[in-house]
Specification:
Length: 256
């Protein structure tokens, strides 16, 4: 039997204990917690049962197929009020670029068919809801290089470009007043934003520090106050990736 399946694990950061969460003979990944911590949604490639799966975070019950699909699907985010799950993937087989989709969810069950949030001839990826649920930040290569954009949710409406020299993997600060993203050279960037009105306002982009981020999907996350960063990195000379927590990051800004 195969032993190289990719599974989802949880980590107790205080006790440093890792617990296996998925057990199917399949590749599973891109897990996202529900806002209330009761559920984990993740992507799974399980033959005829591929798609998005949801399972109680306690592990007390089996997973449930949330969005069935024979096509590649990756979970991006779960809205702060728990109503929507955001994911990416092509609309049809053979499509070269990914589109952005969302599905309404309640008590771990889909309440609607998936709805297209953004479909285009380009590649859209790694989308994130703003904390108030009014905006979505995402990456797109429509300009020839990946940049960060913000659009109103559920739309329609305009779009605002956040990055200027390339960027991907946007993450919001918990109060919605700052956006972070990775530049092409792996510097972590920050920009003050204001989405309180009908028009989205973007401030000056500033670099925070250089990273060694190493992951194809969501290589980092940010604490609620924007002061600590959890980054997936590949140690020099090693094939595997490790997790690093960066604190007091502003002390090193003068050297960047």
């Amino acid at each position: 039997p195969r032993t190289d399946w990719i599974d989802v694990w949880t980590v107790d950061m205080e006790r440093r204990i890792e617990t296996r969460f998925t057990f199917a003979e399949a590749n599973e990944g891109t897990p996202v917690w529900s806002p209330d911590g009761r559920w984990i949604v993740y992507s799974g490639l399980q033959g005829d049962s591929s798609g998005l799966f949801v399972k109680p975070a306690s592990g007390e019950a089996a997973e449930r197929l949330l969005v069935p699909s024979s096509l590649f699907r990756l979970v991006n985010d779960w809205s702060s009020y728990g109503r929507y799950v955001l994911f990416m993937g092509p609309e049809r087989a053979g499509q070269s670029g990914d589109d952005l989709w969302y599905v309404s969810v309640a008590d771990g069950r889909a309440q609607s068919e998936p709805v297209a949030f953004l479909k285009s001839d380009f590649d859209e990826d790694d989308a994130r809801f703003s904390p108030d649920g009014r905006w979505i930040a995402h990456g797109s290569d429509e300009s020839g290089v990946f940049q960060i954009y913000v659009r109103p949710f559920p739309g329609p409406g305009g779009r605002w470009q956040v990055s200027s020299e390339g960027g991907d993997y946007p993450v919001w600060r918990r109060d919605g007043k700052e956006l972070f993203y990775l530049a092409p050279d792996l510097r972590l960037m920050a920009v003050e934003v204001d989405g309180s009105g009908t028009a989205f306002k973007v401030g000056q982009v500033r670099p925070l520090f250089r990273t060694a981020a190493s992951s194809l999907v969501s290589p980092y996350d940010v604490s609620a106050d924007g002061q600590r960063f959890l980054i997936i990195t590949a140690p020099s000379g090693q094939e595997g990736a490790s997790i690093r927590v960066i604190m007091n990051w502003d002390a090193g800004m003068a050297t960047q």
